[in-house]
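Hi C.,

You asked whether I'd gotten around to modeling the 523-residue construct. I have! Everything is below, sequence then structure, no commentary in between.
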Amino acid sequence: MSTFRNRREFLALAGAAGTAGALALTGCGGGAEGGTESGGGADDKARPKRGGEFRALFTGGGEAETIDPHAEALAIDMARTKALFDRLVDLDSTMTPVPRLAEKWESDADATVWRFTLRDALFHDGKKLTPEDVLFSFARILDPKATSHFAQALLSVIDLKKSRGVGKNVVELTLTRPAAELPALLGTLGTGIVSARYLDPAKPVGTGAFRLKSFQAGRSFAAERFDDHWDGGAYVDELRILSADADARGNALRGGEAEYGYEMTPTFARTAQADTSVRIIAAKGSTAQAIVMKCDQEPFDNPDVTLAFKLLADRQKLVDVVLAGQGVVGNDMFGKGYQYYPEDVPQRQRDVSEARALLKKAGVLNRTLSIYTSSVANGFVEAATLFAEQAADAGLRIRITNGSSDTYFKDQLTKGVMGSHRSGAMTIPNYLNDRLLTKSAFNASGWRRKDFDADFAKAQSTTDDAERTRLYGDLQRTVHEEGGLLMWGHPDWLNAVSSRVRGVDEAPPNTLDSARFDKVWLA
């Protein structure tokens, strides 16, 4: 992996702006202190200014990096493709679909035929967006030979042979089954719209706010403002998205050699409190960490045992210690704050005596169990260790087993009866689909119930918004009461910016405004 591991190596590539020290950092939004912000600073309400170069740093992926919007897999890929391309639909901070290249959409009564009205937009080659471009994009995504296209399974519901363009600006998509969530599916990873003239991923033809200047996988990416962008165009003249490890990201921000650092550590966020050169942009509680219990294996095939383990967790202590307070407690359901999350479910509290009674009833007391974990993600080992201490209060002995960081997420599916689990931001239906159905590829908790599968399918096909919300809420309540997710916390998503940057939103990852650089500007 070719990420920059020191300041000198970073400056060798990022120094195209001239003098790296020329960006003198003075204050935070006009104030005297740095710290954590829930937005871009006090001057965000000032009139945005055009001009300048914006340098954003991400964890790199070496030669695996891509600017193909249908093969994007890494955060650095997504940031680059977001600059060059647009989707028909995107997701806001609550994972609700919002218009992008599609101005509006509607479906028939059973959600099997959808019509999307396209806005007036231009590709970087000057050609207008047409329904043919959209259909070409979906055909490319669904090409069975393209095994790296992430959205292929999600969009397989589209029947391309029966889909068509209607006039100059309407796309009609016919589906193989009802899908009331189609707009949300079109806002997920790997769904960017390309031109029907797009043949070579190295020569992208998109409608994005930036036009490519150069790209070298594992090293660099440079793009210039596209003045004819339908949403008004970017404020900065040039965007550079570079790869650097966590320490290099922090050092570059503090040294004035970068304007944005993606996914900073809680430790960096703490030290930034007293640093006037940077600000932390925190998307509160927007990801998830859990300990999973495999419901298809003894003793967790007994719902009393899974409930007992949930009652043993001191969630606030886990957040305070493992996340250094940078997060909120979880309630054993994914998607806190997102569309379809049942906010009326009472927060589960620690109850050691009730947990002990349930464990005694199930004959599990005084047994030794193990948690299969890994250092692959920040907090995994620490959370497993702390929870083992908490479980000891009820007489349980839990052993910590460490797996390989290189293969952990694959290995965890088949090893151990408990494991560490995390998820980035996604829609609740996508999470249920990917992780909690009988045939889900990433079913880390071994939750396999035909009645749950059937209820999920019913929710997917329900076109009435209120009824669909109720059905998804019921699914979440079932997971809360009987499932194998001990979702103890929702970490804050921590990014950092130079104190002279304005216009950065505190959006969760995988949403429209996350790592979005067409609205940023330099004070």
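If it helps when you're writing up: Confidence is low (pLDDT under 50) at residues 1-42.

Thanks,
B.
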